[in-house]
Amino acid sequence: MDRPGQDILLRTLSQVHSVNPAEDDAGINGNINGADRADDSTSEPSQAYKCLLVLAGFMMTFHVIGINSIYGLFQEFYTSPETNIHGAEGQDALVSLVGTIGSGLTWSGSIFVNPMIGKTDNVKLISLSGAFIMSVGIFLASFCTQLWQLYLTQGLLYGIGSSMYYFPLMSLTPAYFDRNRGAAMGIVLAGAGVGGLVLSPVFHALLARLGIRWALRVLGLWNLVLSIPISSVLTKKHGAAAGATGRTRVSMALVKRGTFILQSVGAFLFAAGNTVPVYFLTTYSISILSYSSSTGSLLLAVNTAVNSVARIAMGILADRVGRQNTMVLSVFFSAVTVFALWYDSDRGRFIAFTVLYGIWAGGYNALLPTTITEVYGVQNYSSVNGFIYFIRGLGALFGAPIAGVILGSHQRGAGSSKMFTMDALRTRYNDVAVYDGALLLASGFCVAYVRWLDARDKGGWSWRA
Known about the structure:
The protein is mainly α. It has 2 domains: 45-245, Up-down Bundle (Growth Hormone, Chain: A); 246-409 and 417-464, MFS general substrate transporter like domains (Growth Hormone, Chain: A), CATH 1.20.1250.20. Helices cover 78% and strands 0% of the residues. Helix 7 (110-119) packs antiparallel against helix 17 and helix 13 packs antiparallel against helix 14 (293-321). The two termini are 23 Å apart.
């Protein structure tokens, strides 16, 4: 399919599932205008449209997962002495629940969004509605003074809206790719890391100059403006995507398979473990390592930056050495990084943790959609993806709040300056690191066993899977 001089992105995304070379060449060299309209559900889209879809997916994850990934900045502010929320100071467990409701619903909302996608031909309406609800949730959070109000706005409204905005693109895109599916989804999900890289320093600057209320209002309005052209890329579902999104319920035959159960458990455990560093990276750098809040936001930006590059690199690597192989290694090395570098960390080791955890954690997030298609088939992608992302959402709700309970209530700044208090706080953070590493390690064993069971079910072991 490759031709000299062809754009590298077109080369990466060239091979479409269930389309033979003759049909593909006809789609490229034939009636381009008709293909670009992409309004015939029985046809396949042109390469130009597929590239546009991947770009839209990249931008969508840029601000959905990007906003989720910088919740640590909100966490640090809401629990600090400068907080505008009554009863939130020092309450990491209660405040982290706001973020986990939002990010958890981003994923677990698939349980009701995917059936909507399956029943709706023009999914643009779902995406636009979600973007509006999501933006309203962020905007209304600027008026909150109580924690329960944040739960409803920055948690519930934001989470429901972000899920409706997130899944139309995430459900349709993988169905159009086969051999290069890992690279395509790596590019889409790399937007999450770029979003965190950009939004972390930008939001910190808004917070410092405008205050929390106007920072949230600017974020909400920006989110709405950006999401309208992104959602407009979506058109009627084409043949491959129509088949992939037609089934919304997981069949009992799949449920009874050991791969399905273990992959669900692994997804739950990884989501629980992955939220802990994201939410507590900033607070650790300020409370334990005595970095400034601007340095804390910079470390968060570095983490998301390397995570973004890693998602693309892991996707490309996975297409060559095996998607499941790459995902298994990424989860195990994520756990090793937590145990080796976060536990009882000093400044040097914590910077290394920030970088290396960003690299390894990106692999699982980029490869889960592609391995779902590989293990269960494209015809089951929508139903299995919806259920497993629902489980991931529950895992997100489980992870950071329990870490907050382990950490307990504590004061920032001068109130925690005594050495014995600092030692006690460091011990609590070490307990959080052990808890986090154990979740990730258990997830690694689950996805490794899925790899073995899938090979057995397919009739024999293959090193490239």
